[in-house]
Amino acid sequence: MFRLETEVDKERRALLNRRLRDENTARSPRISALRATPDAREVPLEVWALDTDGRVAAGLTGRTWAHWLHVDLLWVDTPHRGSGLGSRLLAEAERVARADRSCTRSRVETWDFQAPGFYRKRGYEVRGQVDDYPPGITEFTLTKELG
């Protein structure tokens, strides 16, 4: 007999994460070998553009892991859109990932109304899409070789 709960619980989430990580490490020789290297650590990567008053005009948040850069969020404030600021943030994140963290690839998810064209223009290729996520919208996964 089990009792199901839907509560947010940080301790249980951390426990679940550890258990799944340990099981994946035990079941996959490749993951096991990776865990024995410095590349096993997931490291946050953030790039910020501040205006002359120190306010955030744009930002990129992501993480690096296993020679990959994963872009989580990229946002540019409306008055600065079209100025190349988003391209600069992405290029800097890719530079840091490649030069400082030995990343060879990058990935990002974006919705059809957001920025798939922006990423394609910067060398990203669509690797997958999920239609109707959320309803009426398509989500794309794009990747890029960082060289």
From TrEMBL:
Domain N-acetyltransferase, first and last residues per copy: 1-147
InterPro entries: Acyl_CoA_acyltransferase, GNAT_dom
Domain of life, per lineage: Bacteria
Signal peptide positions (record): none
Pfam families the UniProt entry points to: Acetyltransf_1
The protein's name in its UniProt record: GNAT family N-acetyltransferase
Organism in which the protein naturally occurs: Streptomyces castrisilvae
Organism classification: Bacteria, Bacillati, Actinomycetota, Actinomycetes, Kitasatosporales
